[in-house]
Amino acid sequence: MENRIKLKVLGITYSQIQNGAYALVLAEEEGPHRIPIIIGTAEAQAIAIRLEHLVPPRPMTHDLFVSFAHAFGIRLVEVFIYKFEDGVFSSELLFDDGERQIRVDSRTSDAIAIALRSQAPVYTTPEIVEEAGIIFDETPEEANNDDTEREDTPKKRTLKDFTIQELQEQLEKAIDDEAYEIAAQIQQEINRRNENPGRC
């Protein structure tokens, strides 16, 4: 299929539009546009734990789906976000079993969660990028940092205030509690510390 744009998963942030929801942010692999997609908490957790390479104590639904497909020699070739209408993104998964290829319709959040686990590419159309794409001045991670550091909010203890040992303990607890969104945030802070050993 010609004239498509390859996307990458940039991250997940809290939705500023809908309470109790998250925004999955996709980005052009070679371009400035970002595409925010509103998703639910469960889907955000499924994507977040994969982005942060966390291992849940029990397989999640998307892990089970991928394991099942691999067991029968079925490979996810790609995800294609082919339509954006009334604020809703429509996607399809292209599977290959070595003899034939089949396209299956899917919610975009599920498609991305499966693509991350299968290391499959994600594509969309230039029209969707033009209609739904936004050029951000900052990444979701930077936006989250701004939210936590506003001067007009009471000073609370944030992840930056914890020691590495405390963060590791909190990470283990979050995984045990299956609070994967929190676990992903903790893992991000641990990763930042490891990349900058001077930070305590």
Automatic annotation (TrEMBL):
Residues 138-157 are annotated as: Disordered. It comes from the Bacteria. Residues 4-136 form the BFN domain. Pfam families: BFN_dom (PF02577), UVR (PF02151). One of its GO terms (molecular function) is nuclease activity. Residues 138-150 have a biased composition (Acidic residues). InterPro entries: BFN_sf, Bi_nuclease_dom, UVR_dom. This is BFN domain-containing protein.
